[in-house]
Specification:
By secondary structure, the chain is an all-alpha fold. The protein has one domain. 79% of the residues lie in helices and 0% in strands. The longest helix has 33 residues. It is elongated, with a radius of gyration of 22 Å.
Length: 242
């Protein structure tokens, strides 16, 4: 079965690209460069490894574009199941998160500019510049926390489509919906009760694997919506004259 004739496998390929690039800025760079409670060390790491930090910015921009192609592939896959829900997947899972990706790179660009010692910032002393960098990094994190609402919201219509599709396992649809509610709860917790955010993240791990399993399923096994029956079109056409 060729991937070019299998909309599920096409969506799986885009999903795989997203899973490869997404963790670069979200997980790898913070673990590599950021030192909790030490602004000076954090700024020093960014200044010493500017290209790694720039790669994180580029990765976010590429992910924003990949998201659009991913949700369009999913729309093609599920539009016959329920077009309204498929459109929600495009809006909540593609258009809005992509815009946030583009907006969020501005805070990283500002942090890099300050860490590299832009001339016009000489009016601030070094501790103040370090504090500004950390502030921008925290704003980036809050933007990600807010975006988790969209990460969860788009999985609700997607999981419903999977459940109703009859060409994908129903347990995947249920799991994706649970994953969606987990992200939404994590977002609210990160905003209202940030001290419990990390504990909730660890507790929610079984739910958060749903997207990975879904990606691997459509990538490896593929998914193809059933072709309309040969008699369906004439029947519908005949009914339209009644």
């Amino acid at each position: 079965m060729s991937s070019t004739h299998n909309p599920g496998r096409v969506a799986g390929v885009w999903y795989l690209f997203l899973c490869i690039l997404g963790p670069l800025r979200l997980i790898y760079i913070p673990n590599k460069l950021f030192v909790s409670g030490n602004p000076t060390a954090t700024v020093h790491n960014i200044a010493v490894h500017p290209w790694l930090f720039r790669f994180g910015i580029v990765a976010d921009l590429i992910c924003a574009v990949i998201l659009i192609f991913l949700v369009l592939a999913l729309y093609r896959l599920f539009k016959g199941v329920n077009q309204y829900l498929a459109v929600l997947v495009v809006i909540l899972g593609g258009v809005m998160p992509s815009l946030l990706y583009f907006v969020n790179v501005v805070t990283d660009a500002g942090a890099l500019m300050i860490a590299r010692g832009a001339d016009f910032l000489s009016v601030f002393d070094k501790p103040q510049q370090d504090a500004l960098v950390v502030l921008l990094l925290h704003l980036h994190d809050y933007q990600v926390t807010a975006a988790e609402i969209l990460w969860g919201a788009w999985l609700l219509p997607l999981g419903t489509l999977v459940y109703r599709s009859h060409f994908l396992p129903r347990f995947l649809g249920v799991w994706l919906v649970i994953n969606g509610f987990a992200y939404i709860l994590m977002s609210f917790t990160g905003i209202l009760l940030p001290q419990y955010e990390q504990k909730l993240f660890l507790f929610a791990q079984p739910a958060l694997f749903a997207e990975l399993v879904f990606m691997l399923w459509i990538l490896i096994r593929g998914a193809r919506p059933p072709a309309p029956s040969a008699t369906a079109a004439p029947l519908i056409a005949g009914e339209s004259f009644n």
